[in-house]
Amino acid sequence: MSAAASARQILTRLHEIMAGRTHAQHKLDRVVEIIAESLLSEVCSIYLLREGALELYATQGLNPEAVHVTRLAIGEGLTGTIAKNIETLNLAEAKAHPDFAYRPETGEEKFHSFAGVPIVYRERAVGVLCVQHVDPRRYEEVEIEALQTTAMVLSELIAHKELVDDEEQIDLEIAHVENDVLEGLTLVKGLAAGKAVFHQPRIEIDQVVAEDIEAERQRVYRAFDKMRDQIDALGREAEFGKGGEHIEVLETYKMFAYDEGWSRRINEAIDSGLTAEAAIERVQQRTRMRMREIDDPLLADRMHDLEDLSNRLLRIVSGQLGTAATQGLRRDAILFARNLGPAELLEYDRRRLKGVVLDEGSLTAHVVIVARAMGVPVLGRVTGIRSRVAEGDEVILDADRGMVTLRPNQQVLEAFETRFAKTREKQAAYAELREVEPFTRDGTRITVMMNAGLRDDMSALAMSGADGVGLFRTEFQFLVSSTLPQRDRQMRLYRDVLDAAGDKPVVFRTVDIGGDKAVPYLDNAVAERDENPAMGWRALRLSLEREGLLKAQARALLEAAAGRTLSVMFPMVSEPWEFDAGRQVFEDQLKFLRDRRKVVPETIEYGCMLEVPALADVLDLLAPKLSFISVGTNDLTQFLFAADRANPKLAERYDWLSPAILRYLARVSQSLIGQNVRLGVCGEMGGRRLEALALLGIGYRRLSITPAAVGPIKELVRKVDLGEITEFMNRLLASPPPNMRAELQQWANERDIEFD
């Protein structure tokens, strides 16, 4: 008998039981009898989650006196392991499993084989369905699939109180544990509080058992057609350049979207008697279980792609489209999601969105760059989101410490408010420095600029009191767009930015995409094959190859800056010829505009970023051609240490205050003395007070940082004597102590310079 036929037979008989008017316990007893009989199993048992433990609610084959007596903690024994991991176990010899736990009152010692599946409700295990047999054997795949389908139906019946009495408090909802703390990786620092909101609201499957199998099949067919049309449309939008190349991820999506095996499994689930929604969810549950068994990260990513498509298909067939952003935030919110794209984040109301918690996420993810620009704290790599967080829960996000507290009690809330109030006090004090120029104690003017990448970021220029924009990341417009931004659209953005800046300077970095910043309209096949995309075909390397891309941007910048000063900075320059090639593109477009009597910028300043270590050894050749140079400490650090900062094991391993990085930066500073080149830092290092202090001590006088860091850095500058810190840093670098950070911290403490 097929899995579908076995499941359908069980569901038919379950339906007959539900139609009766008998007591709930009698119904449960009949359920285990039917399952045991249908699968020719000597034992069938149902455990349900009650008061935090799995309680034996019904059994066929074990000692009936163990019912409502045998209890197992989550993670205890084979049954507890199934519930904890939401996984299926299929064992020929149960006692050989390391998690086996014997309960003498059940009389199960004579049974060898064991199979169990979780009863899942809202992505949590609320029970376990088990079968056992005297003979050592693994259950057939068709039997396991029949069990899994039956468990899904049991979940609905239990949720609707059809298998348990009203007085039986089955733990269907998330336990409202006070001060439940989840830990993760800090992606964007900050404090926030609000109500939990899921980016994709949970889809409630109200009906599991189908009334008309053929009608359900047609619903799935229509949903597949619509989903495939959507994927094909994405593919058409991804065309760019010759031949309409497509990125590999879209090809993978298309492969899954048209995969006959996937659609066949959903059809088989419908054949077993499930509705279209339940069938998709049934197959998706199986995918999730397989994902937990996959060690290969590439294969795991592909399984994530399949789950993304399953979510899309489920939303189409249920008619529950859209995200929390489209529904609108009605109160201060902490957003929870498996992952987010930058465009999705930008859809949210900034006034209400206070923080983000991700199941995945990395330090270099595009959404993190955007969130940092928005001033929204983000915590990533947080496990257990769906099983421990309920929509509307009170949440405190402490991304500074890498933790999120669910349902905090009054004491924790008060402690948070006290800490948050101190943060606000500091911010108010920093705001008072808005109009104050950052001079050191010995009278040296330090230039403190801000980083930006969005049109809305420009409002922070006046609010922070920054001297200008030292880094405008033009790639944000490319990252949040599904198609290549046309020249006119680029020009409008750049003109708006310059208008907002007024008489303050803006440095535009040419587009830094490709490699680890994939966009859906370039052929990233090369980048996909890079073992380290951050060091691959990206930034200026890609722009020089895609000459049309850089030409369009050059024209847009030149036209936007008509009659003004244009400052252009090239990223990822490794050798002088790359800078020369990038500059020539601009000069050619400048001539093109002049020949047509167009208004052009009064002055053009050319600069580059120092991110590739090799560039430092040819600065003597490059410096005469530059107006300015800006050190990108984020990429520079990972290249110097051969440490991928997207790798959580390495993210915190290499300190910006290590002798290696500080000596390197000091050499760069020394090599430019006497050159008419403005030297600055535009990486995250410059926005941290202790690191900024070290930079001042090794010769850096220009910092471009996040808007939120402008006030704290200006306050720091006013407390520093450059002569003192320079002498101290020279001594430290000449003979580095074991802990540079501790030494610098102590020096600052002795001078009443505070650090968070």
TrEMBL record:
Pfam families per the UniProt record, alphabetical:
GAF, PEP-utilisers_N, PEP-utilizers, PEP-utilizers_C
Respond yes or no to whether keyword Oxidoreductase is given for this record: no
List the catalytic activities from the record: L-histidyl-[protein] + phosphoenolpyruvate = N(pros)-phospho-L-histidyl-[protein] + pyruvate
As cofactor, the record names: Mg(2+)
Which ranges carry the GAF domain? 23-168
Q: Which InterPro entries match?
A: GAF, GAF-like_dom_sf, PEP-util_enz_mobile_dom, PEP-utilizing_PTS_enzyme, PEP_util_C, PEP_util_CS, Phosphohistidine_dom_sf, PTS_EI-like
Localization per Swiss-Prot or TrEMBL: Cytoplasm
Q: Could you give a GO molecular-function term held by this entry?
A: phosphoenolpyruvate-protein phosphotransferase activity
Q: Which keywords are on file for this protein?
A: Cytoplasm, Kinase, Magnesium, Metal-binding, Phosphotransferase system, Sugar transport, Transferase, Transport
State which Enzyme Commission number(s) the record gives: 2.7.3.9
UniProt-listed SUPFAM superfamilies: Enzyme I of the PEP:sugar phosphotransferase system HPr-binding (sub)domain, GAF domain-like, Phosphoenolpyruvate/pyruvate domain, Phosphohistidine domain
Which protein family is it in?
Belongs to the PEP-utilizing enzyme family.
* Name the record gives this protein: phosphoenolpyruvate--protein phosphotransferase
- What is the source species? Qipengyuania citrea
